[in-house]
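Attaching the record inline, Q. Sequence:
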Amino acid sequence: MSGTNRPDRPTLIPGPLAAQEVGVAPATIRKWVQLGHLKPAGKAGRAQLFRLEDVFAAERAARGANRRRTR
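Structure, as predicted:
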């Protein structure tokens, strides 16, 4: 059954697609990794792969940090 999405295995997506999903630049994904806000869940060749849930969580955290900073 290769190619099927198993519920116990989350779908992993590359950084550029992760960036597109949350509406940020790919450089922002790389910055979140550098800062420790987002951790890659795997690799495909040289490309880092991320769980979509983790990307959304990092985006929410970054948005919250920006709100606190501007008040």
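DSSP finds three helices and three strands in the chain. The chain has one domain: 12-70.

More tomorrow.
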